[in-house]
Design brief:
The chain has about 325 residues and is an alpha/beta fold. About 45% of the residues lie in helices and about 10% in strands. The protein binds phosphoenolpyruvate and magnesium ion. This is Phosphoenolpyruvate-protein phosphotransferase.
């Protein structure tokens, strides 16, 4: 099967009936960007769907200057040429502590001042980052899509969109990783150009399960019906409003889940670049209609293993 997947390595990312899906790479550094871009072309990897900018500054003691940030962002954008790059503003806190942004004394950091919420205590971090991103974009080449993590309310989405647009960012989005945001995806989508579902945190917060606790992995499973339901609800809102809905959590890298997500109407899937060929291969074996049937089967199941099994039963038998 590995040979078969490799033989498809230059095939475009579409379903068997030609429905296109953007397959994108998750990156955290300029080196990641170089690697993902160099190994692929625009047909097979359409760009980056999640640039985790906090990774650039994990070891920094002081907030990076606008100029330091601009250099990193410009280099990552340049690596992808004119391919799409979705940049996430700093997601500091909880599992991603940054010395200059994280509050030291939180009892429940996953429920605390993390992601977009850091703006409440360090507003200049976000404004500097947006300035640096707009400056990097001003150098030509691809225009980044910019999204904020950990958005929970319409007011937050509106405030972020206003700040990003005022800084000169053309395409503004938010991540859907808090159940409150998924439940109200329609309202939030009215404020922005796109959303991207972070299934790692969406599962954590939906299932009240710390994403770092391996012994609770069964609860964190993105095939949990409640998590699938929230993903489906978000995808439906995107379809109704005609706006892109991506998935950039680990679940996008599972070929079986990728089929379900496409069936739900998700328009892009972002994953570690090594996972792209297997996902592309699975997509190319199935029509959009088959993906939709798989999505119905998954949503109709009352537990994760039955959801998976329901999808496996609909897989195209391979010659
Ligand atoms: C997610 O939460 O699914 C996500 C993509 O963001 P991160 O893993 O960086 O929190
Ligand atoms: Mg997240």
């Amino acid at each position: 099967a590995a040979e078969e997947i490799l033989a498809h390595d230059n095939a475009p990312a579409t379903t068997a009936d030609g429905h296109g899906v953007d397959l994108l790479a998750n990156i955290g550094t300029v080196a990641d960007a170089d690697l993902a871009a160099a190994r692929t072309d625009a047909r097979t990897v359409a760009g980056s769907g999640l640039f985790r900018t906090e990774v650039l500054f994990l070891n920094a003691q002081q907030a990076p200057t606008v100029e330091e940030q601009r250099r990193e962002y410009a280099a990552a954008l340049a690596a992808f040429g004119d391919r799409k790059v979705v940049v996430r503003t700093l997601d500091a806190g909880a599992d991603k502590p940054l010395a200059f942004a994280t509050l030291p004394d939180e009892e429940n950091p996953a429920l605390g001042v993390r992601g977009y919420r850091v703006r409440r205590v360090h507003p200049h971090l976000l404004s500097d980052q947006l300035t640096a991103l707009a400056d990097a974009a001003g150098e030509g080449g691809t225009q980044p899509w910019v999204m904020a993590p950990m958005i929970a309310t319409v007011a937050e989405a509106r405030a972020f969109a206003a700040d990003a647009r005022a800084a000169g960012i053309g395409t503004v989005g938010i991540m859907i990783e808090v159940p409150a945001a998924a439940l109200r995806a329609r309202d939030l989508l009215h404020e922005v150009d796109f959303v991207s579902i972070g299934t790692n945190d969406l599962a954590q917060y939906t299932m009240a399960t710390d994403r770092l606790r391996g012994e609770l992995a069964d609860l964190l499973d993105p095939w949990q019906p409640a998590v699938l339901e929230l993903v489906a609800q978000t995808a439906r809102a995107g379809r109704e409003l005609g706006k892109p809905v991506g998935v950039c959590g680990e679940s996008a890298a599972d070929p079986l889940m990728a089929l379900v997500l496409v069936g739900l109407g998700v328009t892009s899937l972002s994953m570690s670049s090594g996972a792209v060929p297997a996902v592309r291969f699975a997509l190319r074996q199935h029509t959009l209609e088959q993906c939709q049937a798989m999505a119905r089967a998954a949503l109709g199941a009352d537990d994760p293993s039955r959801a998976r099994r329901g999808v496996v039963e609909l897989l195209e038998p391979r010659a």
